[in-house]
Amino acid sequence: MIVNINNEQNEFEINEAKMIEIVKKVIISEYKDDNFEINILITNNKRITEYNENFRKKSGPTDVLSFEYGLNEPVIGDIVISSEKIYEQSKEFNNSFNNELYYILIHGVLHILGYDHIYDESEAEEMFEIQKKYFNLLKEEG
């Protein structure tokens, strides 16, 4: 199993080891396989806006984008996270930066595994329950 993290921002300290631990635990628990590769890009609002506009045709920054390639592919997916958006949301939801990052990371991983919350309300409920379950197991205390 390979988790590649490209942290192209330097405004916020990122615990890459914890991120890798989270990705591995969620994927192995849900997918029941450790033969995967996933890429994670941590960037800023400007860069994620470009991705959001190019791939989703939506303007402005978002917290996370997931690109699912299929569980049988050598690289099962890419995740793009805006550290600036994570910081904004951590303040909005009274959460630490790291825990907000981990919550959103779990969300992105679940999308890679095929979970969705856009088109079906019952699927959305299921996805958010699973996201909360992993977050409560893996978040930082304090």
UniProtKB/TrEMBL annotation:
- Which terms does the record give in the GO molecular function aspect? metalloendopeptidase activity; RNA endonuclease activity; zinc ion binding
Where would you say this protein principally sits, based on its record? cytoplasm
Top-level EC class, please?
Answer: hydrolase
What does the record give as EC number? 3.1.-.-
What is the name of this protein? Endoribonuclease YbeY
Organism, per UniProt? Oceanotoga teriensis
GO CC terms for this protein? cytoplasm
Q: Which cofactor does it need?
A: Zn(2+)
Decide whether keyword Coiled coil is in the record. Answer: no
